[in-house]
Design brief:
- By secondary structure, the chain is mainly alpha-helical.
- The protein has a single domain (13-23, 41-170), classed as Orthogonal Bundle (Lysozyme), CATH 1.10.530.
- It is built from seven helices and two strands, in the order αααββαααα.
- The protein is globular, with a radius of gyration of 15 Å.
- The termini are far apart.
C-alpha cells in the first residue's frame, strides 16, 4: 500500500487558541493511578497501518513518549475525566480534538469518524494522537508533546514547556 501525500495546514497562533481554547495543565484534575501499559504502534498513514502488528525487530519509536504522555495526562487512567475541560480518557482528549482528528481523517482519506465516546478507549485515543502528529508532521518527541498540549502551534507557547518537562520526567 502506498502512503498518501499529506499536506499539513499551517495554523496561526491566534487560530490555534480559538480552535483549542486555553492551554491545559491538568493541575485542577484528579487522576487515579493504574498499571503502566506499553504501546506497540507507529505513527499511521492510514488505520490499516495503525493496526499492523510490529515485529520484535521493529522497535516502536513512540512507546516511551506515549507512555509518558499518558502518565502526565491521566496517571494511566482510561477513566480519567476533567469536568473543567471536558477532557476524557488516558490522553485527556477534549471534544475539539475529536473534531480536529475527524477533519484530518477527511482530508487524508481515512474512512473513520471518531466519536466523543472513543476518547474513553486507550487504543482509539492513541490513534487520534498519532493521526494528529502525522498530519502536522511532528517528528520529534518535544514537538509531538507540546503540540498535543497546545495545539498545532504549541511550540510557540511558553506554557507548553512545563508540559514537555513533565513528559520528559516520565519517559522510560
Amino acid at each position: 500500500m502506498k502512503a498518501k501525500a499529506i499536506i499539513p495546514i499551517v495554523i496561526t497562533s491566534y487560530f490555534a487558541i480559538a480552535l483549542y481554547g486555553r492551554m491545559h495543565t491538568h493541575d485542577e484534575c484528579d487522576h487515579d493511578h493504574s498499571n503502566p501499559t506499553k504501546i506497540n504502534e507507529v505513527i499511521p498513514d492510514t488505520l490499516e497501518v495503525v493496526d499492523q502488528t510490529i515485529t520484535a525487530t521493529s522497535p516502536p519509536p513512540m512507546d516511551s513518549l506515549v507512555y509518558a504522555m499518558i502518565q502526565v495526562e491521566s496517571r494511566d487512567n482510561d477513566s480519567a475525566y476533567c469536568a473543567a475541560e471536558d477532557a476524557v480518557g488516558c490522553l485527556q482528549i477534549r471534544p475539539i480534538m475529536v473534531d480536529e482528528v475527524n477533519r484530518i481523517c477527511n482530508i487524508i482519506g481515512i474512512k473513520k469518524t471518531y466519536t466523543l465516546q472513543d476518547r474513553w478507549s486507550r487504543s482509539e485515543s492513541i490513534r487520534m494522537l498519532k493521526i494528529f502528529a502525522r498530519f502536522y508532521r511532528l517528528e520529534d518527541f518535544e514537538h509531538i508533546a507540546r503540540c498535543w498540549n497546545g495545539g498545532p502551534s504549541g511550540m510557540e507557547y511558553a506554557s507548553t514547556e512545563g508540559y514537555w518537562n513533565k513528559v520528559q520526567n516520565e519517559m522510560i
